[in-house]
Amino acid sequence: SVTEYYISPSKLEYLRTVLLAEGSVKNFESTLVDKSHKAKSIISNFRLFRDAKGNPDYIEGVARDITDLRNATEELRKAKDIAEKSLAIRKQFLSNMSHEIRTPMNGVIGMIDILSGTQLDPEQKGYVNTIKKSSETLLTILNDILDLSKIEAGKMKLRKTPVSLAR
Hints:
Layout lengths: L8 H14 L1 E10 L5 E12 L5 E10 L1 H50 L5 H32 L14
Antiparallel strand pairs: 1-2, 2-3
């Protein structure tokens, strides 16, 4: 009897109960042991036939082996979990690094502002302006990275501001 191959007695009892009550079962998932004693995931459809007096007579059914599908689904779930963990680590890294780099960068920009207020010859002023522009560009990049982290974390707040289209 096919019932000898079912691993879970409770699932088998559930199947019997539903068949007696409803006359059929569709998409019933269970685990069987095949003749070589390997566990197989199956999905089945069963129908109960009754005799002329209405008593249960026999069961007819079809089972499909979904072991490979179940294993592939589990592998995809594991890969998804790994990808989500990697994404979370990446987000945290970007956020931490942009904050860690921004703090000393603000110090550099502040010192450049102080330096530009001192007596400098024209060549030195050119160097200070170049350093200032470069450091401000770098700070803009860091802010953009932080904004990207905020967007990914769902913490970005939008605000309406007027924009000139004349440029």
